[in-house]
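Hi all, long-time lurker, first post. I run a small reading group and we've been trying to get comfortable going from sequence to structure in the token notation. Rather than ask abstract questions, I figured I'd post a concrete chain and ask someone more experienced to write out its structure so we can walk through it together at our next meeting. Sequence below, copied exactly:
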Amino acid sequence: QVQFVESGGGLVQPGGSLRLSCAASGIRFSIYAMGWYRQAPGKQREWVATIMSSGTNYADSVKGRFTISRDNAKNTVYLQMNSLKPEDTAVYYCNRLPSSDWGQGTQVTVSS
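-- Answer (accepted) --
Happy to help. Here is the structure in token form:
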């Protein structure tokens, strides 16, 4: 059974940083591209970043502020978030590409 467990969220002031982690199980982690997504209150889930063998891609709204990385030995993908803005407030999820069942996500709140 595929499972993703996200962690590392919290409350942070504008301009602050957080590092999210996502532990995957039930898949051959190293062969999949992995992505981070987020869902803000009242909005649809949106794509944030992808990491694949050929490199990384980012949504324009986070480019230059967020960095996606992975550790295949730990079956874990990370999202380093810097210069956080209130509009980054959302529940953050990870998933493989193509997507599978979604985890519970981790809440990120950017507020003073």
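A couple of things your group might point at:
The first strand starts at residue 3 and ends at 7.
The chain has a mean pLDDT of 97.
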